[in-house]
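[recover] target loaded
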């Protein structure tokens, strides 16, 4: 699975975004260690805060199917720069992703940036912080 193949899956699912309010479509594709890809798009709601980002849809789909080990994630939106994931998604990513895991952020102009989880959310609050 190349980076581009995973990005293509994110581009494809982005078309399913339900965005009557922001009109801003986002797509995400998550590759698991078992070789499966879980995709997600953003899904908005008339009660705005209930909306869910594409990244969390993909992650929650995978977790709900029993997947716990991930290789890489791709996220795409129609942005100037590679799309930066929101803070809530970064926190959810840090719950499930290894600190060294690669996350490919891109846009429709093929402007891609790959960052590690630890770069996206340094000094993140972890389960282990409650275990003293
Ligand atoms: N959004 C995502 O799906 N992922 C991001 O990384 C940034 C923001 C969504 C949430 C909302 O539906 C729309 O983009 C505008 O904020």
């Amino acid at each position: 699975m190349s980076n581009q193949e995973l990005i293509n899956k994110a581009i494809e699912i982005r078309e399913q975004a339900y965005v009557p309010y922001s009109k801003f479509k986002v797509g995400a594709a998550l590759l698991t260690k078992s070789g499966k890809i879980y995709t997600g798009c953003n899904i908005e709601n008339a009660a705005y805060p209930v909306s869910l980002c594409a990244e969390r849809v993909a992650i929650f789909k995978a977790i709900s199917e029993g997947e716990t080990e991930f290789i890489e994630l791709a996220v795409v939106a129609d942005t100037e720069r590679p799309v930066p994931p929101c803070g809530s998604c970064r926190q959810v990513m840090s719950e499930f992703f290894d600190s060294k895991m690669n996350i490919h952020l891109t846009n429709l102009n093929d402007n891609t940036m790959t960052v590690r989880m630890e770069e996206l959310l340094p000094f993140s609050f972890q389960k282990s912080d409650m275990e003293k």
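[recover] notes: The chain has one domain: 3-124.
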